[in-house]
Protein backbone atom coordinates (compact mmCIF):
# COMPACT_ATOMS: atom_id res chain seq x y z
CA UNK A 1 0.00 0.00 0.00
CA UNK A 2 1.51 3.40 -0.97
CA UNK A 3 2.38 5.74 1.87
CA UNK A 4 0.11 8.79 2.16
CA UNK A 5 1.94 12.01 1.25
CA UNK A 6 2.41 14.45 4.14
CA UNK A 7 0.42 17.66 3.90
CA UNK A 8 1.17 21.02 5.46
CA UNK A 9 -1.44 23.65 6.48
CA UNK A 10 -0.46 26.73 4.51
CA UNK A 11 -1.79 30.26 4.15
CA UNK A 12 -0.82 33.70 2.85
CA UNK A 13 -1.08 36.49 5.41
CA UNK A 14 -0.32 40.06 6.27
CA UNK A 15 1.84 39.93 9.39
CA UNK A 16 1.95 43.01 11.64
CA UNK A 17 5.22 44.30 13.05
CA UNK A 18 5.84 44.14 16.81
CA UNK A 19 4.70 47.70 17.47
CA UNK A 20 1.37 47.07 15.73
CA UNK A 21 0.84 43.78 17.56
CA UNK A 22 1.46 45.48 20.91
CA UNK A 23 -0.96 48.29 19.99
CA UNK A 24 -3.64 45.73 19.02
CA UNK A 25 -3.24 43.89 22.34
CA UNK A 26 -3.48 47.19 24.30
CA UNK A 27 -6.52 48.35 22.30
CA UNK A 28 -8.45 45.10 22.80
CA UNK A 29 -7.17 43.84 26.16
CA UNK A 30 -10.22 44.80 28.22
CA UNK A 31 -12.76 43.42 25.72
CA UNK A 32 -10.79 40.19 25.36
CA UNK A 33 -10.83 39.79 29.16
CA UNK A 34 -14.58 40.56 29.33
CA UNK A 35 -15.26 38.06 26.53
CA UNK A 36 -13.94 35.25 28.72
CA UNK A 37 -12.12 33.93 25.67
CA UNK A 38 -8.63 32.58 25.17
CA UNK A 39 -6.52 35.49 23.89
CA UNK A 40 -4.56 34.96 20.70
CA UNK A 41 -0.83 35.15 21.48
CA UNK A 42 0.57 38.48 20.19
CA UNK A 43 3.05 36.68 17.89
CA UNK A 44 0.12 34.90 16.19
CA UNK A 45 -1.84 38.06 15.27
CA UNK A 46 -2.26 38.33 11.50
CA UNK A 47 -4.68 39.00 8.65
CA UNK A 48 -5.20 35.91 6.48
CA UNK A 49 -5.26 36.75 2.78
CA UNK A 50 -5.65 33.24 1.35
CA UNK A 51 -6.01 30.01 3.32
CA UNK A 52 -4.80 27.10 1.17
CA UNK A 53 -5.39 24.35 3.71
CA UNK A 54 -3.45 21.09 3.82
CA UNK A 55 -1.18 21.05 0.76
CA UNK A 56 1.31 18.60 -0.71
CA UNK A 57 4.96 19.47 -1.35
CA UNK A 58 4.14 20.04 -5.05
CA UNK A 59 1.31 22.46 -4.26
CA UNK A 60 3.46 24.28 -1.70
CA UNK A 61 6.09 24.89 -4.37
CA UNK A 62 3.42 26.21 -6.74
CA UNK A 63 2.20 28.58 -4.02
CA UNK A 64 5.77 29.81 -3.34
CA UNK A 65 6.14 30.82 -6.99
CA UNK A 66 3.02 33.03 -7.04
CA UNK A 67 4.46 36.18 -5.34
CA UNK A 68 5.87 38.76 -5.57
CA UNK A 69 2.78 40.81 -6.32
CA UNK A 70 2.64 44.44 -7.34
CA UNK A 71 0.88 46.47 -4.66
CA UNK A 72 1.27 49.86 -3.06
CA UNK A 73 1.83 50.00 0.66
CA UNK A 74 -1.52 50.67 2.31
CA UNK A 75 -2.87 51.56 5.70
CA UNK A 76 -5.23 49.33 7.64
CA UNK A 77 -7.07 50.91 10.55
CA UNK A 78 -8.54 48.33 12.91
CA UNK A 79 -11.49 50.19 14.40
CA UNK A 80 -14.33 47.66 14.51
CA UNK A 81 -14.92 44.86 17.00
CA UNK A 82 -16.84 41.78 15.87
CA UNK A 83 -17.84 38.32 16.99
CA UNK A 84 -18.68 35.12 15.14
CA UNK A 85 -21.15 33.04 17.12
CA UNK A 86 -20.41 29.71 15.38
CA UNK A 87 -16.66 29.72 15.94
CA UNK A 88 -16.89 31.86 19.10
CA UNK A 89 -14.17 34.14 17.73
CA UNK A 90 -13.74 37.76 18.83
CA UNK A 91 -12.04 39.83 16.13
CA UNK A 92 -11.07 43.32 15.00
CA UNK A 93 -11.27 44.61 11.46
CA UNK A 94 -11.13 47.82 9.47
CA UNK A 95 -14.49 49.55 8.92
CA UNK A 96 -13.10 50.78 5.61
CA UNK A 97 -11.20 48.23 3.55
CA UNK A 98 -8.64 49.95 1.29
CA UNK A 99 -8.93 49.32 -2.45
CA UNK A 100 -5.29 48.20 -2.45
CA UNK A 101 -6.17 45.31 -0.08
CA UNK A 102 -9.17 44.28 -2.17
CA UNK A 103 -6.98 44.30 -5.29
CA UNK A 104 -4.16 42.40 -3.56
CA UNK A 105 -6.50 39.66 -2.33
CA UNK A 106 -8.15 39.31 -5.76
CA UNK A 107 -4.79 39.29 -7.57
CA UNK A 108 -3.34 36.70 -5.19
CA UNK A 109 -6.34 34.38 -5.58
CA UNK A 110 -6.33 34.89 -9.35
CA UNK A 111 -2.73 33.71 -9.51
CA UNK A 112 -3.38 30.83 -7.07
CA UNK A 113 -6.32 29.57 -9.14
CA UNK A 114 -4.06 29.64 -12.24
CA UNK A 115 -1.67 27.18 -10.53
CA UNK A 116 -4.36 24.78 -9.30
CA UNK A 117 -5.84 26.09 -6.04
CA UNK A 118 -9.56 26.46 -5.47
CA UNK A 119 -10.73 29.82 -4.15
CA UNK A 120 -12.84 29.96 -1.00
CA UNK A 121 -16.49 30.70 -1.72
CA UNK A 122 -17.05 32.99 1.26
CA UNK A 123 -16.59 36.71 0.61
CA UNK A 124 -13.27 38.02 1.89
CA UNK A 125 -13.49 39.80 5.24
CA UNK A 126 -10.11 40.99 6.52
CA UNK A 127 -9.84 40.62 10.30
CA UNK A 128 -7.52 39.68 13.15
CA UNK A 129 -8.79 37.09 15.61
CA UNK A 130 -8.12 38.43 19.11
CA UNK A 131 -9.72 35.60 21.15
CA UNK A 132 -11.28 32.17 20.69
CA UNK A 133 -13.86 30.35 22.81
CA UNK A 134 -15.17 33.84 23.59
CA UNK A 135 -18.52 35.47 24.21
CA UNK A 136 -19.66 38.48 22.24
CA UNK A 137 -18.87 41.81 23.86
CA UNK A 138 -20.89 44.87 22.94
CA UNK A 139 -18.15 47.47 22.99
CA UNK A 140 -15.96 49.60 20.79
CA UNK A 141 -12.26 49.42 20.25
CA UNK A 142 -9.59 52.11 20.08
CA UNK A 143 -8.37 52.41 16.46
CA UNK A 144 -4.99 50.87 15.60
CA UNK A 145 -3.26 51.92 12.39
CA UNK A 146 -0.83 49.70 10.47
CA UNK A 147 1.09 50.44 7.26
CA UNK A 148 1.13 47.14 5.35
CA UNK A 149 4.14 46.61 3.11
CA UNK A 150 4.69 42.88 2.69
CA UNK A 151 3.09 39.48 2.21
CA UNK A 152 4.00 36.29 4.11
CA UNK A 153 3.62 32.59 3.33
CA UNK A 154 2.98 30.78 6.62
CA UNK A 155 2.64 27.22 7.87
CA UNK A 156 0.27 26.45 10.74
CA UNK A 157 1.43 23.63 13.00
CA UNK A 158 -0.49 22.15 15.93
CA UNK A 159 0.67 23.51 19.26
CA UNK A 160 -0.44 23.16 22.85
CA UNK A 161 -3.19 25.72 23.46
CA UNK A 162 -2.49 27.64 20.25
CA UNK A 163 -1.19 26.77 16.81
CA UNK A 164 2.44 27.57 16.05
CA UNK A 165 2.96 29.69 12.96
CA UNK A 166 6.16 29.32 10.98
CA UNK A 167 6.82 32.04 8.41
CA UNK A 168 8.20 30.27 5.33
CA UNK A 169 8.83 33.36 3.20
CA UNK A 170 8.17 37.11 3.19
CA UNK A 171 7.87 39.27 0.08
CA UNK A 172 8.00 43.07 0.29
CA UNK A 173 5.42 44.58 -2.04
CA UNK A 174 6.74 45.58 -5.44
CA UNK A 175 5.58 49.15 -5.79
CA UNK A 176 3.19 50.23 -8.53
CA UNK A 177 5.04 52.45 -11.01
Characterization of this structure:
The model has no long low-confidence stretch (mean pLDDT 93). This protein has helices at 18-35, 57-65, 99-114; strands spanning 8-14, 38-39, 47-55, 74-84, 89-94, 128-132, 144-148, 150-157, 164-172. A hairpin with a 4-residue loop joins strand 4 (74-84) and strand 5. It has 3 helices and 9 strands. With 177 residues, it is α+β, with helices and mostly antiparallel strands. The longest helix is centred in the first third of the chain and has 18 residues, at 18-35. It has a 5-stranded antiparallel sheet with strand order 2-6-5-4-7, covered by helices on one side. The protein has a single domain, classed as Cyclic phosphodiesterase (Cyclic Phosphodiesterase, Chain: A, Alpha-Beta Complex).
